[in-house]
Amino acid sequence: MQDHYNKVSRYVAAIKAVSPDSVVELVVDESTRNNPPIFQRLFTCFDGLRKGWLQGCRRIICVDAAFLKTFLGGQLLSAVGRDPNDQMFPIAWAVVEGENNLSWGWFFTILQSCLDLGDGSGVAIVSDEHPAILNAVATVLPKAEHRHCARHVYANWQKRGFRGDEMRKAFWKVAKAYNITDYNEGLEELEEAYPAAAESFRSYNPKCFCRAFLNPAIKCDAITNNMAETFNGFIINARTQHLLYMKEEIRAALMKRVCLKKQEMQKGTTLLCPRIQSILDKEKEKAVYCDVIPSTESIFNVNHNLDSLIVNLPDKSCTCRKWDLMGVPCCHGIACIYFLGKEAEDYVEECYKREVYLRVYGHPVPACEGERHWPKVDQKIDPPPIKIGPGRPRKNRIKDPHENPKKPGTLTRHGMEMTCRLCNTKGHNKRGCH
Q1: How far apart, in whole angstroms, are the C-alpha atoms of residue 283 and residue 279?
Q2: Alpha helices, DSSP H only, in 235-318?
Q3: Secondary structure of the chain: what % helix, strand, coil (to 5)?
Q4: What is the pLDDT of residues 322-357, one digit of tens each?
Q5: Cβ 230 vs Cβ 135: under 8 Å
Q6: pLDDT at 393 over 80
Q7: In the predicted model, what is the mean pLDDT of residues 165-182?
Q8: Is 151 exposed, middle or buried (0-12, 13-18, 19+ CB in 10 A)?
Q9: Residues 44-75, buried b or exposed e (16+ Cβ, 10 A)?
Q10: What 8-state DSSP symbol labels residue 272?
Q11: Are 19 and 45 a contacting pair, CB within 8 Å?
């Protein structure tokens, strides 16, 4: 293990040699006056990923931490963006001693520098409600919009006893409402049926996880941290390996991913990225049921589902706020576009165009030689100390109270309400239907 960590400084030198503009920061602990010093943290942001995010991705970053599965412990912090096809775009990651104020503050400070985030204006950060992340974002990026993952909020809300299909539907109806009117109506319905649940919902600060309060300038309606969770799943096997092998496996996997994503998109001929085209096509189907009444050549009243909304084509906005938040025309906007005899694709934001996608993936992750070819560096590093907690080491993980004992990793149907397939009524199944 000593030899393994002695190679860390050589690895950092090798990465900087093949990609001088990449940001690779190594931190060692010299406070113990050990000779050699002890490894503490290692940050990595390849220049190709940094340029790709800056040149084509929306300014939204999902951050999360994942445990490293070796006896040395530690955690891997990650920052993940969204590419023009609404898929994950890894930006940076770091191996740290643990998830605390110092490590997250250090991570965000370097991220702020290499992505030119400034004070966070015009940037959205999505995370779980870990106190260390809240403190770091408030300190380093005080003007950033900090969104809390609605899925984590829902899990905590459930633990207060608000379970069942009706509760789940009510929660997501309120959280996913695009405008204040729909948000208030959903919350009023929840309060009328379950007053305690509505009061608990309000206590989680809805402005941080409900779409009705999001900044439309970001052009992203994400209220979950799925991109970071996807990246953690993408590197799950790498996290079982020691430091250098893990870093190299992540680099190789992303090098391959960037190249293949670019090749796949080059085969296409559409103006928009595939996922965005699919979203637009669904809105086109709904546009058939919209009745358009022109006020001027660019402002319209649209009647849809007993509701009347205003669409402003030059501003690319609608009363429903779906177009404002996503940057993809809603069904009301598409109806107005068709009324003028134009194409809906021309009104989609530039960040979703195929040419922007190719620009994002136009910067490769660097190839790197094997350790035989790494530069000789005269800096020895000790591995981090093994952390042994008090008491007998736990062999089995802590199980969920409602986990199925016969099928580890799966939950029982506790708290679920059965629905009859015949009459669509809750409380019984088709066997008990009369």
Answers
A1: 7
A2: 243-266, 274-287
A3: 45, 15, 40
A4: 999 999 999 999 999 999 999 999 999 999 999 999
A5: no
A6: no
A7: 94
A8: middle
A9: bbbbbbbebbbebbbbbbbbbbbebeeebbbb
A10: B
A11: no
